[in-house]
Amino acid sequence: MEIKILIIEDEMIIARFIEQHFYAFYQNIEINIALSVEEVDNYMREQQPDLVLCDIQLQDDCDGIDLMVKYKAEKQFSLIFITSYDSKHCIDRTIAVNAENYIIKPLNESRLYAGTHIAIQRIAQDKKNRKISPNLSELTSAEIQVLKLIANRYTTKHIADKLCLSPYTIKNTRHRICRKLSLEEENNALLTWAIEHQHMLEN
Question: Which stretches within the chain are classed as H helix?
Fold first, then answer.
């Protein structure tokens, strides 16, 4: 699963520098760049980032810390600040929003890698653990029932007949299960997952 990274930086040259090196450092990442508060708002409205790298000194009315206070109240994500500020007061403010690190400009390859590597590896491990041990509590009892039948290699038509439902209803249920388990709806991904995790479904 890809790690979604949002870079909030009002200088495009710096943002592209970070993006370029991240693609060199890491695999399975998706990077978006926001150059203004408006672009951050637009992204956050539609997306859920795993990691945000945020400049503190933005050209908008609010600084990066104030902006992150707003979004930390609404979403869960890891946060690293990148800035030219190095005062104790500024660092203390970043701690208040649970920032994982604080990287001082000017940036270079080593400083960027050292400041982000631990967070990236932790996020990747968390995603791996969630994929291995999915939270089945998000599924309804009806969805669990369908998933058990899928694990037993019942087709959509057979499941519909057994539960006295329409194939269309079962198809929609399969789509919902895929979304909740973060599975691609192709190449029999749901069938493969159900068979591999059949032991969990019997608990």
Answer: 12-25, 37-46, 64-72, 88-96, 109-132, 141-151, 156-163, 167-180, 189-196, 198-201
